[in-house]
Amino acid sequence: MRQIDGLNVKFDISQMIKICDLISFDGPLLSHYMNKKGENYLFKWVDTDNSYNRWLFFRVDLAELQNYINKKRTLYDLLTNCNDGFAYFVDIDAEIGYHNLCILSVENIDTDYLPEVDSMYEFIPSDGLNLDSFSQKYNSGILEFRITGEQVHYGSIPLSKFAPIIPKIEEIRKELAGKYIKQRKKQFTITDKEKKGAIGKTLALETQYEVIYALAGSFRLILRPVGQQTQLPDTISFADEFAEEMVGLFNAGFNKELLETYISKYNKNLIKKYNDFILYLFDNKLGLDIKWANNNSKQDYKQKIKVTETVSILKNLSDFQYNDNEEIKYKGRFFAINTRSGSYSFESTEGDDFKSSGFFDAKIKSLIFQISFNKEYDVIIERQTSEKVGEKEKIKDTLESYIENEEKIELDDN
Tens digits of per-residue pLDDT, 264-316? Predict the structure, then answer.
């Protein structure tokens, strides 16, 4: 390889994060990297011998990189007009060891190492991100949300489309986490309040996320759990369990039986929020990839929702009807009764705004003439709730019993 008359420098390449390969042929030829500060670099393969592969790399603005991807600028333009006016060279061996790192003015780069003057971009970026390397670097599980679709370009997305996405994802996470934590805590038989509280705190931190990068490619967010649970190799953490539930939820939209499982395990509010998010993707012609990787536990979960698949998920959700029965006990007063139809209207006197309108159970319908509007009653109401996802909730209340002055109306089963 040619001798490079550059200045030796210190540059910790090992801390650079690979975003994607822009050009590859039997291996990468042009790759996009980012450093800890969020600065973007292009690495271009330029030479090889029996010992090393030589790479030229230089800093580039993301906007200029987007212009290159969109065929508005050439690679030659990006390099010869780069931010700093200089580029780096490094020789890399087969064990990924770095040698002969130096810096050189762009004006002094050998013409054989420069791109062609008309080096317009004519490829499709390899948009896969190695989450395992992120996980290893941060010693943590890593969650990726990758947004694709209309008006989503390399590293950019209209703010009007992106702004609602994070709160919608957070609503899903919060709803899912609340139920997951309650269910998980029930599995512990610990009676010590302090230890039980510590577990609850750990669960709360392992099911919350913080954003560590917003990366280029089809626009993506990289997150990690707020908590850093001590984890032995090859053991599954709370964060792994929760991430599996999160990824599984996005998969559930493709299967009605899985939807039924999630509703029975969690609640209808979670499915409502999921439906709202998928509807948003559909309305804005967006898609989503969600991935989780944990290098410590070797856990890897992923699900892709293409732009064209959101309509089928919404169809599955619209066909699904949620039904629930619950027994409600309240103290209050009746303010309307129809002795002929057996209907009633009741309101709470317990300091809240609970109201119920429905029908008396047939077994006590004949006794409702005894009810006085100026007295308080303890009532038991059976509430049947049915709801199709995305439609208004339907409620049917049946008053099964009432008690006034400690005297309870007994129901005759015969």
Answer: 888 778 888 999 999 999 999 999 999 999 988 999 999 999 999 999 999 99
| Residues 5-25: tens digit of each pLDDT | 889 888 888 888 888 889 988
- Is 2.40.50 the CATH number for 323-408? yes
Q: Which amino acid is at 337?
A: I
State which amino acid sits at residue 362: A
Distance CA 124, CA 154 (A): 11
pLDDT on residue 352: 85
Are 145 and 46 within 8 A, CB to CB?
no
Which helix (H) or strand (E) segment is 286 a member of? strand 286-294
In one letter, which amino acid is 228? Q
3-class SS of residue 180: helix
Helix runs in 187-308, H state only: 193-206, 238-252, 256-265, 268-283
Report whether 282 contacts 225 (CB < 8 A): no
Q: Walk across the sheet containing 86-92 and list its strands.
A: 7-8, 98-105, 86-92, 53-60, 40-48, 28-34, 17-24
What are the sequence ranges of the domains in the chain?
7-113, 131-319, 323-408
List residues bridging with 348 in a β-sheet.
332
Side-chain-facing half-sphere of 222: CA atoms under 13 Å: 22
Q: Which residues contact 322 (CB under 8 A, 6 or more apart)?
A: 263, 268, 271, 385, 386, 387, 388, 389
Q: Which two tokens stand for residue 368?
A: 């409702």
CB contact at 8 A, 251 and 287:
no
Q: To the nearest 5 percent, what fractions of the chain are helix, strand and coil?
A: 30, 35, 35
Paired sense of beta strands 86-92 and 53-60, if any: antiparallel
Distance CA 175, CA 265 (A): 12
